[in-house]
Design goal:
mainly alpha; transmembrane; about 70 residues
Length: about 70
């Protein structure tokens, strides 16, 4: 039984990187749309990664417990 539970946790963890990839991509797109200036593109990427990290570590974990 514990082997099955461990397998499910590994399967869920393997998709955790998608939060970061999606956050980065849409952050870069948002940075481009804001001003079409090159300075906003990396700023948008960083903000997207921070938002993804917050979502993955706070929101997703709290819904997992409940």
């Amino acid at each position: 039984m514990s082997h099955q539970h461990q397998h499910q946790e590994e399967e869920q963890k393997s998709y955790a990187y998608l939060y970061y990839v999606i956050g980065l991509v849409f952050g870069l797109i948002t940075g481009f749309v804001i001003d079409k200036d090159f300075i906003w593109i990396p700023i948008g990427g960083v903000l997207g990664l921070l938002t993804a990290a917050f979502f993955a570590n706070v929101v997703a974990r709290s819904s997992e417990k409940g």
